[in-house]
From TrEMBL:
NCBIfam families: cmk (TIGR00017). Pfam families: Cytidylate_kin. Residues 3-212 form the Cytidylate kinase domain. GO terms for molecular function: ATP binding; CMP kinase activity; dCMP kinase activity. It catalyses: dCMP + ATP = dCDP + ADP; CMP + ATP = CDP + ADP. Coiled coil: none annotated. InterPro entries: Cytidylate_kin, Cytidylate_kinase_dom, P-loop_NTPase. GO terms for biological process: nucleobase-containing small molecule interconversion; pyrimidine nucleotide metabolic process. The gene is cmk. ATP binds at G7, P8, A9, G10, A11, G12, K13, S14, S15. This is Cytidylate kinase. Its EC number is 2.7.4.25.
Length: 219
């Protein structure tokens, strides 16, 4: 069974999807981390992120592994490094590159082949797994999403302001919804769920109910 969780930045997809996968006994696939890892590799190599050919070459050369809660880039743990504001803001170049997306989409499908998976991202239900048995669109208000991201960055030791995070989020939201490939939108057969005012546990409890109903053919 494939459970897709799509939605905008800061909606709580990663934490909710990871916990949902744990409860279900499924594998968790954090697809956004793959684009971040390509971006980090490009930045570390001094690649011009606007050079799509160079980005594709990086994507073809690196090995990205998702190991439980860790993201490995050529065997190196980059779980924290790919979550900085710098990498987050720059990931749009990899995400907007059709050939990078094609390569990573192929990897995502191969990882999920023959497995029970909870996968989260922007285009999981619409592009990567259009035939998924359970599709969820997780969202939250702009202010709530920005506050979550701000607290996450501060918790990681970054020096940012709420205004800076909100401004960058608005730019990212616009890019996610207007990009030529893999843009963010709710699949027609996805169930939308808003997480404002809910704890992570409450969100996951609700997601479990959605999955259980899908399994039983009730929704």
């Amino acid at each position: 069974m494939v459970v897709t969780i799509d939605g905008p930045a800061g909606a709580g997809k990663s934490s909710a999807a990871r916990e949902l996968a744990r409860r279900l006994g499924f594998r968790f696939l954090d697809t956004g981390s793959m684009y971040r890892a390509v971006t980090l590799a490009a930045v570390e190599r001094g690649i011009d992120l606007a050079d799509s050919d160079a980005l594709v070459e990086v994507a073809e050369q690196v090995e990205i592994s998702l190991d439980e809660d860790r993201v490995l880039l050529d065997g190196r743990d980059v779980t924290r490094a790919i979550r900085t504001l710098e990498i987050t803001s720059a990931t749009k170049f990899a995400a907007d590159c059709p050939r990078v997306r094609a390569r990573l989409v192929d990897q995502q499908r191969r990882v999920a082949e023959g497995m029970d998976v909870v996968t989260e991202g922007r285009d999981q239900a619409t592009v990567v797994f259009p035939d998924a048995e359970c599709k969820i669109f997780l969202t939250a208000s702009e202010e709530v999403r920005a506050e979550r991201r701000y607290l996450d960055l501060v918790g990681r030791g970054e020096h940012v302001t709420r205004e800076e995070v909100l401004d960058k989020q608005r730019v990212r939201d616009n890019g996610d919804c207007t990009r030529a490939v893999g843009k963010l939108y709710k699949a027609d057969d996805a169930i939308e769920f808003t997480t404002d005012g809910l704890t992570r546990e409450e969100v996951v409890d609700h997601l479990m109910k959605i999955v259980e109903k899908r399994r039983a053919g009730e929704v």
